[in-house]
Amino acid sequence: MASRRTLLAGGAAVLAAAAALGTFRWRQGASAYESAIAASRAALPPEPGLSDLVRYATLAANGHNTQPWRFAATPSGIAVTPDFSRRTPVVDPDDHHLFASLGCAAENFSLAARAAGRAGTPAIGAEGIEIDLAPATPAAGPLFAAIPHRQSTRSDYDGSTIEPALVDRLIAAAAGHGVEAIFISAPAEREAVLELVIAGNTAQLADPAFLRELKDWIRFSPAEAARRGDGLFAAASGNPALPDWAGRLVIDRVLTAEAENARYVRQIRSSSGLLVLVGPSDDPPGWMRAGLACQRLSLLATAEGLKLAFVNQAVEDLPSRTELRSLLGLGESRPDLVLRIGRAAPLPFSPRRPVETVLA
Q1: CATH code linked to domain 1-354
Q2: What ranges do the domains of the chain cover?
Q3: What's the pLDDT tens digit per position in 23-32?
Q4: From CA 312, how far away is CA 244, in angstroms rounded?
Q5: Whole-structure pTM over 0.70, yes or no?
């Protein structure tokens, strides 16, 4: 999912010039970007309306930050359904990540609804999720409070360990939605998964169609990120903000398997561990349930001062996914999502589209 692609270190002369341009462009576009981020992540008002709850829902994790969801009122609540016009058919040919993204958004909405005094109970259907908005006792908590702070933090982590009791709570958070979370911290096991991430990444970067799709969703400058309200903002990966033309020049020169694989090796080895989420079924309802669990687990991690980032190449590339299933002894179950977890400083947030573009 989401959002784990980066511009790469390398090409010193090109990047030095790009960084200088990026500093200039950042100053030009920073105000619009910062205003957009502040508006999207503002606290809910004391009596939030439907649009306020949807805004919190859209802060969820999602593949390539395409935000592939629609929200529509129903007689008893709200429905979260796919927006297939925002699918990514190369990296996600069966729409697995798209449906997982719906689950992530539904978890955010449910938590916000409960905080606002609504039932917030999600019901998974064949191709969407309905959430009950019947009156209930308000129930805000640390997961709700973490919603505007959660991000996919695509940087090096500090390598510190996570207490076993907290790992158990993360696993239990996923289990609350019927999803198995497998925590991997032993060096040999982590290296085995890393090999599959590298194999998947190498295969993807050798595919011209994958590269075209990826580059279509990268936003290089803060002004562009604010204007578009979607996509993979370069600065959210710790890279320089650039004018669009310069960004496209840089990415063509430095986006290589060798450079990006080196980054993933460093980042995974700097993490406290890996989490593999396994849903109850390999179909849209199972994928949505994996998304619900992923978001709940991520919010708990955020509330505890942890960061996460997706390293989904190991499940996006079919041969790598087959090997991962065997490595973990999953039988016929599908490994849905792979995340690395640890501690790190926050990065700039990814933008979100206005609520009126997703709420019918």
Answers
A1: 3.40.109.10
A2: 1-354
A3: 555 555 788 9
A4: 27
A5: yes
